[in-house]
Every structure is written in structure tokens, then in C-alpha cells.
Amino acid sequence: MKRIKILLYALLAPLFLITACQDDNYELGRMLDKSEIKFRIEQPLNLDAGGNTVILINETPGTLSMWDYGTGRSERRVDTVRFAFEGEYIIKFSAATAGGIVEMDPVTIQVTQNNLAYVDDPLWTALSGGVGNEKTWILDIDAKYFDGPLYFYGTDNGWEGACMNEGGDCWNWNPDYAGNTWLMPAGDYGTMTFNLKGGPFVTVNHKMLPNRGTENGTYFLDTDTRTLIMTDATPLHDAGRDGCVSSWGNIRLLSLTENAMQFAVLRMNSCEGAALLVYNYVSKEYSDNWVPEEPVDAGPDEGYNPTFAPGQLLNMLTGGASSGRVWNLDASGNPVDWIAGGKGWTESAASSSDWGWNTSWETAVADSWIRFDRFGGTQNYTRRQKGATTTGTFTIKEDTNEITLSNGNTLLQNPDSWMNPTASTIKVVKAFPNDFQSKGIWFGTSYDAGKDEWLAFHYIIP
């Protein structure tokens, strides 16, 4: 009904504009009589001997078309429908006029032969199991194939995530459900069964949407445009977004294989902005036979808890006897990490952007450095930051790879950040004795015993 009102308003809009300046005159246009509505339904037998191809034609000027042909609906003035299966089909036509909707008498047509070429496509088979079969799908709430049940894409993304318009609204966010359970409640969302048993029929059992319950409808898969139209049934989805999609039956396919598929529907602008809600499904057969992979423990990160020969760490830091070596915080690479159980997770500064690494850090460490040296036979430490120089000495505890800086000295500072390293004793958490010149060194500045986690900063040789 909402869709009908929108169509009627679009038709009546010019009339409203014409009469807007007339005082106290709110009369709408005249509703046409059924005798004034002209439409045709043709079955050109030269295209299909069984009458499978049906052409719908609205010949009434100034009206909007509203077709219901049993396996789908259309609003086109002229449309072509192809029925793959023989049988009797009832076609309903209504015309939206300036005065209201005129509903015409239904027309019954006969399709006398099957033409299964219209559903003979790998995508039809993947969706329904093929002619004479059915296939049941469930929402991938347990992340057996995808990372979770729901992804988000831009309005111009299409098949396999490709951007359909150059420079268009193309982006994606694919949250893992394990870390984002707020997306939707866990539970059994029901089943969605597509079949080709005498026609393209679909049954959806919405276990998490009692107001929808079980829906029985039809569907049409356009293999050229990678779109799916569901009529009188809606795909499995969550209650929280049920009111955020005006047309659940207009679906864009992002992927469809034997085991998994992705349906994209357009979220309304009023619900956090227009975007594609991409629901991820797996076949029930795949789900029932799914066996979780054994977790593979790759061990700790390369260089974690390094072993040095006597004096090797000192030489790496300073460059050797009577030498000095300058180190920079890796601001343009991967400057900070949280290394838990020997494994870090950041890949670049962007990994912790804003909440961790941010522009205040970039400003704080620009043109700044630290230096370890052995000038004058003493182990010296210098921190040069924002024109100020802090000096002292350092010692190394080789059995724990700990470095203690004298006079309360520290690594490069950023007092505006919660990560600011204030410790004077730092630990070499990761290092590469044979490749430090290209891979640098990770200094741990604070340790969370409960998580076995180091906050570590990455220093490199400039």
C-alpha cells in the first residue's frame, strides 16, 4: 500500500502544482472509468510455441501501470515476461489515474509447454537446486562461511562487490560477528527455500520475525543484471532493520554459489543513511555438514623475545665501540602495537588511527630522535625532541633484554596521549639481530600481566 501511495503521489504532483494557488480548491483529477482503460496482453507464438513469452502493454496515456502476473510484479508501461513452466496464469492490471486506482478484471492465459531454457542457468541452479528441485538457505549467523551475517556496502556496489559507476558510492565494511555481536541477536532466524517445482516458488519461515511468520511467494532471477525479485515474501533478516528497507523484494546479488550467497537491499536514508545491507546466507546442506577447521597456531611473531649473544644487543643499539646510532619512531610505517602472547596485530599507523596513533603523535615526534652511543667509553642515551635535548646513560640487563635509562629518561614523548611512554626501564620485545637495519626494534614500555600483553613502540634506523 505504501508503494501504491508513492506512485499515486508522483502521478498527482503536477496537478497539485497547478492548483496550488487556487483558494479552497482541493479537488483531485477525475478517476477514469474502466471502459477508458486500454491495455493488451500478447503471447507471440512465433517466439514460444507454448506461449511462454507474454508482452504486457498499457495503452492508456497519463496513467501508471501496476501489473501482477503471478510470478512477479511490474510498473512498466510495456514489459516482457517469460514463463518457464506450462500452466494457467492469472494476470492482474491496475492503472493509477489522477483520481485514484482503477482495477481491471483479471486475465487468464494458458502456457501449454515448458520452456526450461529460461531457468537453465548455473545461477538458477545454485539458488534453487535446478528444475524439479528445491534448496533451503539460512542466515550465516554462526559465521560458517562468511565472517558474519551482515555486511555493509555503498549504493553503487554490485556483483562481487564491483563498483558499477566510476566515482560512485562504492565502499564496504565486512564486520566479523564475533567482535560485533551488536549487529543482531544470535538465534535461529529460520529458513528460506527456493524451488523450481512447476514454477519459481519461495517459502520463507521468519523465526525471529513473528509478525512476518511464514511467507509464501514467487521469485524471478535476472541472470543478466544479477538481480532477484521476490514477490509476497521477503528474505531472512533481523528485526532491528525490518523497518529500514522499503522494498525487501528488490534484491541485488553480490554473490551466489553452490554453498553461499549474498543478498543486498537498499537501506533507507532515514536509517543512518542510504547504503546496501548485504545479508549473508549459506545453504542448509552446507551448514549441516560444516566442520570447523582446526585452529592453526602459527606461533609468536617473528623476532619475539629475541636471543642475543653477549654484547650483541649493545652493539645493535649503538653501532659498536666508540660509535653511536640514531633511532626514529616509525611514524610513517607501523609505530605502535599491542603484543599479546607474542603476537601483535597492527599493520600500520592506520590500524589504531585516532584512538591510538593520531595526528598529535605525528606532531610530537616530527624531527625527533633517540640515540644510544658509547662515546668516551660510556654508554650514553640522548633524546632530542622539539629542539630540547635530554641526556643520560643506560644499562642493559642481558638475561631479560631490559634497558634502563638514567635520570628518569624515556623514549619519545607525547603528553597528550594516553599511550605516552613514561617508563625509564624498557624491554626489547621484538628484535631482529641479523636484520635490524631494515626491520628495526620494538621497545615494550608497559606490560599487562592479565593479558600477557606489551604496549610496544617501533623504532627504526633513519
TrEMBL record:
Signal sequence annotation: 1-22
Domain of life of the source = Bacteria
Keywords from UniProt, A to Z, are: Signal
Could you identify this protein by its name?
Answer: PKD domain-containing protein
Name the species this protein comes from: Pontibacter qinzhouensis
